[in-house]
Structure formats: C-alpha cells, structure tokens
Amino acid sequence: MTDQETSRVLPRFGPALKTWRLLRRIKQSHAAELMGVSQATISRWESGVQEPTGSQAVRLTTLLETRLDSAADRALAELVMHASSEVHLICDSTHRLLAASPARERCWQASATELTGTSLWRFASAEIVEAERKLGEAGWFAPVAPAIELATGSNSSPIVPIQPGRVRWTRMRLADGSFARLVQAVAA
After folding, report:
1. Distance separating alpha carbons of residues 48 and 68, to the nearest angstrom
2. Which residue of 45, 64, 99, 146 pairs with 89 in a disulfide if CB–CB is 3.0 to 4.6 A?
3. Do the beta carbons of residue 94 and residue 65 sit within 8 Å?
C-alpha cells in the first residue's frame, strides 16, 4: 500500500495514541520502543504534525485495536446486534467493525460476520472523512465527548454502500479504557 493509499484508508491516530498511552501510564519513550521509532516521532504523531505510514500505521492499528473483552462490552455488542434500527459499533481509532444490527447489515452486500474485525474506513464518504478530520475541534477527544450528527453523502462502494442521509456518532469508553463509536442512522 502506498503512503497516499494508507492516508486515505486509515484515519488520524494522534489522539487515539495519546489516550491509549495515558490510560496505560506509558511514557512516549516506551511507546517509541514498542513501535520501533523515536520518542520525537511519537510526539509528532500525537500532535498531528506527522502521520504514521505503511508498516508503522499497520503496527499502530494493531496496538490501538478495541477489544470487547469484558462482559459489559460484549453486552453492548449484543445490544447492537439485536437492535431494530440501522446501527453499528466500530473501534473509534481504527474503524474496525465490532458489531452491526440486522437492519444495518441488510444495507450491505457483505455480511457483518465477513466485515467484523476489518476497518470500514475504506468505505467512508467524503463527508465522513471531513467530519473525522474535524473531531478534535468538536471536542470528540474530551473526557465527556459530545454526540456528533452529520450529513453523509453517498460513496461508490457496492460492498458497503452509503446513501445520503444523517448519522449520529456517539463515543463510548469500554472496560479496557479504549473507545468504541456507535454509528446510528438518524431519521430525517
């Protein structure tokens, strides 16, 4: 994958890396050792001055993956999988699918089982990419993040098509301190 493809496929990691590190009380120098980069590189990633590329981005994705390890986290996934509305749950930092409702799954050409564990970022519409870019300005990474509603345009994916409409993003802290994002269709 080229650097340009990586930046389109993967969202910004800075805030997620900093949150991950602070929750685990890991210094930038130790995170640098884990990633095989310098402490200055970790600092630049966290501040958004530089983005990880290629194998660095893949390694960071693995490090930041949200896991549904606790009973409460698994119960949240079960609620999503049995919801009657169009809703899905993703890892907030990597956009990996964690769970999807049957109503959401009916919109897709691939099953939720096939997509679970894979990043949905590659299916993002231009409006979603833009909203993701502005999350910091919207207070998304604050201790109590606001829910964000946005208009989505269509994408060109036959696998996970997105139709123009509105969605609400809600950030939820999981048992291990990582964050998931609940994505809900909002009635017009």
Report:
1. 28
2. 99
3. yes
Measure the CA angle with vertex 147, ends 144 and 151; round to 5°.
155
Provide the pLDDT confidence category of residue 94 given band limits of 50, 70 and 90. Answer: confident
Q: What CATH number is attached to the domain comprising 57?
A: 1.10.260.40
Sheet with 165-173, strands from edge to edge, namely 97-100, 87-91, 179-186, 165-173, 148-152
Domain membership of residue 33 as a residue range = 3-64
Amino acid occupying residue 14: G
Confidence tier at 4 by pLDDT (50, 70, 90): very low
Question: Residue 99's pLDDT is what?
Answer: 97
Dihedral in degrees, nearest 10, Cα atoms 156, 161, 165, 168: -120
The 10s digit of each residue's pLDDT in 154-186 is: 999 999 999 999 999 999 988 887 889 999 999
- DSSP, collapsed to helix, strand or coil, labels residue 163 as coil
- pLDDT of 6 above 50: no
Say whether both 102 and 173 belong to one domain.
yes
Our measurement of the distance from residue 87's CA atom to the centroid of its chain's CA atoms, rounded to an integer in Å, reads 15
Please provide residue 20's backbone torsions phi and psi, each rounded to the nearest 5 degrees.
Answer: -55, -45
Same domain for 48 and 83, yes or no, is: no
Please check whether residues 77 and 29 belong to one and the same domain: no
Domain count, the chain: 2
Query: Are 60 and 124 in the same domain?
Result: no
